[in-house]
Design goal:
elongated
Length: 133
């Protein structure tokens, strides 16, 4: 984990937020920001803010550019319910629940060199087998 950012007590349903999160989970930070700019869903605004905060934090603390970061963890937890009452028929009152969300986002470095190293070791193994035969 290079950078972590969170936003708490956001007045939007966790369920709606998770639908947008599933689209950007595991994406590079630059692509995720581009996708969030073009979606017309309300949770995009909040997720984009948290993403930008995490990218800025990584740049400030570790001097890592946004192009080399990806979203390693993004989750939405349910926050406290805000309870209100509305008048109903026959003198009754019905409860209205305003749901809140906590968004947590973690960024990590893209590991390109590991794939290259794994491919090179496989090539070396095949070369050594051919030489030994």
């Amino acid at each position: 984990m290079i950078s972590k950012a969170s936003a708490k007590y956001i007045r939007i349903s966790t369920r709606k937020t998770r639908k947008v999160m599933d689209m950007v989970r595991g994406m590079p930070a630059v692509k995720a920001e581009a996708l969030l700019n073009n979606l017309s869903k309300r949770p995009c605004l909040y997720i984009k803010r948290v993403l930008k905060s995490a990218v800025d934090s990584a740049d400030k603390r570790f001097h890592v550019p946004a192009s080399s970061l990806y979203i390693s963890l993004i989750k939405a937890d349910q926050g406290p319910l805000i309870k209100r009452f509305r008048a109903a028929s026959m003198g009754r009152a019905t409860e209205i629940l305003h749901r809140t969300t906590h968004i947590i986002l973690e960024l990590d470095k893209i590991k390109v060199y590991e794939k290259k190293a794994a491919i090179e070791t496989e090539k070396e193994k095949t070369r050594s087998k051919k030489k030994s035969q």
